[in-house]
Write a structure and sequence with these properties.
heterodimer; A: mainly alpha; 3 domains; 7 helices; B: mainly alpha; Rna Polymerase Sigma Factor, Chain: A; Arc Repressor Mutant, subunit A; globular
Chain lengths: 164, 154
């Protein structure tokens, strides 16, 4: 195939405008790899496309970027983590008002999870109760040991009295 | 300390902002020529820029012309918004007045304008146009090439 004839056929213009069929696209990409002149012609056409668009450019209304930025922020905002109690709610966490039906566990790749601050009181209570149970366990252990010693002493005393 | 997600969001905004500064006028002009309504064109522009963060890799392809990639993305989006293209056929009668903001279009013949606008604005393939206009695909491609030569000569 005469590559110059191929370039002149208008197929490159069809491709650049996205109007080529799949078979034409495959063929063109093959020729682009094989013939540098096809690649150069394509680059020139892409520059022409930019030229057309520049000629037809119209400034968007002021404030459009602000709206786009706000919209992107809205789309990418990280959802709030699970709450024990919704402020003002009566029966704990309200999934309806929070508009969410799952627990936030940060990103999939993260090794951390986030929880609501109100959990700190639960953890504090568990910690204090743990200490109380530990103190009680030590106290009753010592009491028990002392009682065992006294029993042992009494047994020894009784045995000595019996021998006498 | 910023999380990975926050950094990623900021990176997107930075890239999207750059793309907005450079191409928003071109993209708005392109959309306006299709919908012929400022408000609708602005809404489509907003939607397309919201659509970009998920497709930044496509725009950043090696050796790819960013404007052409952005245009393909816009066309893909507009294909899903069929309401924007409610009148997706340019008739001969309309084309006499279809110069829009572009001096280059006014330099084309009716046939060249018809082929170029149907492909450029309405994303029609040469096969579709061949059927509609009852001309061979080769002739459609040659007409398209002539339109490009006119654009190049300016």
């Amino acid at each position: 195939m005469d590559i110059q004839e191929y370039i002149e056929s208008g197929i490159l213009e069809t491709y650049v405008l996205g109007a080529a069929s799949e078979a034409e696209v495959r063929e063109l990409l093959y020729f682009k790899e094989k013939y540098p002149q096809v690649e150069i012609a394509l680059q020139e056409l892409e520059n022409d496309m930019e030229l057309i668009a520049e000629q037809m450019a119209v400034a968007p209304p002021p404030g459009t970027w602000g709206r786009i930025e706000a919209s992107i922020n809205e789309l990418t905002t990280v959802p709030e983590p699970l709450r024990l109690k919704e402020p003002g709610g009566q029966n704990g966490y309200n999934f309806k008002t929070a508009n969410r039906d799952y627990i936030e566990v940060a990103d999939a790749q993260s090794t951390h999870m986030t929880i609501h601050k109100s959990w700190k009181w639960v953890f504090a209570a568990v910690f204090v109760l743990g200490k109380i149970f530990l103190a009680c366990a030590i106290y009753f252990y010592l009491e028990n040991r002392q009682a065992q010693q006294q029993i042992q002493e009494l047994k020894t005393e009784l045995r000595q009295n019996h021998l006498r | 300390m910023k999380t990975e997600k926050q950094i990623s969001i900021n990176l997107h905004q930075y890239n999207v902002h750059e793309l907005y500064d450079k191409y928003s006028g071109m993209l708005f002009g392109y959309i306006y020529e299709i919908v012929r309504d400022n408000e609708i064109a602005e809404q489509h522009l907003l939607n397309i820029y919201n659509y970009i963060p998920d497709h930044l890799n496509e725009l950043d392809g090696e050796g790819a012309n960013t404007w052409c990639q952005l245009l393909q993305l816009a066309k893909k989006y507009l294909e899903f918004s069929k309401s924007a293209l409610y009148n997706n056929q340019l008739y001969r009668a309309d084309l006499n007045e279809y110069d829009g903001h572009n001096r280059l279009l006014s330099l084309m013949t009716i046939e060249q304008k018809q082929v170029f606008c149907n492909v450029y604005y309405y994303g029609k393939t040469t096969a579709e146009l061949s059927k509609e206009l009852n001309r061979s695909e080769e002739l459609i491609r040659v007409t398209l090439k002539e339109a490009f030569i006119i654009i190049k000569k300016g």
